[in-house]
Write a structure and sequence with these properties.
Distance between the termini: 28 Å
Structural class: alpha/beta
Radius of gyration: 16 Å
Order of helices and strands: HHEHEHEEHEEEEHEE
Oligomer: single chain
Helix content: 25-40%
CATH topology: Rossmann fold
Number of strands: 10
């Protein structure tokens, strides 16, 4: 994770989960649907979670998985995850770089990654996926989710000439602002990115979130 993005999430750690309590009924419904999809896809798996953050989605995986290793680059966000009622015998919280997962070993038959892909430069997407798949067993159940682009939500979208990536200007609780990398994906781009190594892939595109599930091809 880039230093500026790590700093952004470090500074937002204490208030980050307010985004999951917004009052829009359709957004809350999508979150509940996503939670059910996570539980359904990752049941009875040894799961690696990438960019677990404050553990909001870790709770869903932990409810059904054999074990979850929830990783994040920021110890500040994992400190908040530790306050959640996660079963200590089935959840391990660990600081790790999403681009350097090899040290974890190929022990996982499940993977969870929520709201991280949008922070990966398009030029680095394949490198990230290759590294993730390298620590998964063939046939592993994989679940990705992230934000859909909603006009007027989450700050102004910023584009730059000659740059394939997009950015958002976010306001922080202390009144300051910060520009962060924030990419958005449509069905076509998701299919192109994941299909070469995915079996039985399902893609859901909602108004507020998209998510997809698949099994890692041998």
């Amino acid at each position: 994770m880039a230093d500026d993005l790590k700093d952004y999430y470090r500074r937002r750690a204490a208030s980050y989960e307010a985004i999951y309590h917004r009052p829009e009924a359709d957004r809350l419904t999508e979150q509940e649907d996503m939670a059910r999809a996570i539980r359904r896809h990752l049941a009875d798996r040894n799961v690696l979670e990438v960019a677990a953050g404050t553990g909001w989605w870790t709770v869903q995986a932990a409810a059904v998985a054999k074990h979850v290793v929830a990783t994040d680059a920021n110890p500040e966000t994992l400190d908040i995850a530790r306050l959640k009622p996660l079963p200590a015998d089935r959840v391990t919280l660990q600081t790790a770089d999403a681009f350097d997962l090899a040290a974890l070993g190929r022990q996982f038959d499940g993977a969870l990654c929520c709201c991280w892909l949008s922070h990966v430069k398009r030029s680095d997407l394949q490198r990230f996926l290759t590294g993730l798949h390298a620590v998964l067993k063939p046939g592993a159940a994989v679940f990705f989710a992230d934000n859909s682009l909603v006009t007027g939500f989450g700050g102004d979208l910023i584009t730059r000439p000659g740059d394939r990536d997009t950015y958002k200007q976010r306001q922080l609780e202390d009144g300051s602002s910060q520009i962060i990398l924030k990419n958005y994906f449509d069905r076509e781009e998701l299919t192109s990115l994941f299909a070469p190594q995915a079996d039985d892939m399902l893609i859901h595109i909602g108004r507020h979130f998209w998510w997809l599930s698949y099994y890692l091809a041998p």
